[in-house]
Amino acid sequence: MKDRIEAVRRQFDRNAEKPTANGLVNYPEETLGRHLGMFLLRCNFGQNVYATNDDALQLLITGSGSFADEIAVQFYLLGNGCFGLRRLGVMAIGLALRPNKALYFFKKYKEGKNALRLFDVYYLGLLHLPLQQVKDTFLIK
Q: Per its UniProt entry, which superkingdom is the organism in (predicted)?
């Protein structure tokens, strides 16, 4: 069953037009799409960069594109049940480079444990929804 869902998702991904930062800022004011477009522009990813699920997760979890927040997202996702060798490696390197942020990282880990499973949701289909509604749905603080 999971294989079928993944196959449908991959087909949808191939057929869907990827939104750019410029296209996203044209969404209504409080939507996930608008906030994602502003996030991409604010973090200097460029005007024609394509939005991805990772960008949406970064926006929903931390709202910032800093190095420490990138690591915090990895801790959040681990707490949320998304395991992976790459993720563990990034977390280890992040802790080694930013030991003063350890409490922040573990706080995000605990928040991830308390949130609903969100790492395998296709966020680009939720761009028209209000940002706060998406956060409330997945219990993101």
A: Bacteria
